[in-house]
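Bump. Still looking for Type II toxin-antitoxin system RelB/DinJ family antitoxin structure tokens.
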Amino acid sequence: MAKEATLQVRMDADLKEKAEALYRDMGTSFAEAVRIFAKQSVQENGMPFAMTANRKNTYGRLSGYANTKLAAEEDGAYEREMVGKHEKTD
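Sorry for the wait, here they are.
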């Protein structure tokens, strides 16, 4: 499969270095891990792990890394886009 698209993600430099080292130790690259994650997400038709508000599981552990400012800005974004899209076509 040809690689025809680029994905840019901003993250903490220390986190990036640790992730790169982790995947290098596993015999792959961080970029390949992202491709695997995307492929698995499509295959699962969702996140490839359970997400809940319980801090004892995957999402709960990840929620500590969430940017609450961005989450507030993104809240309702899909609905706003869909309303705007349909208003343009009417």
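The chain has a mean pLDDT of 80.

Edit: fixed formatting.
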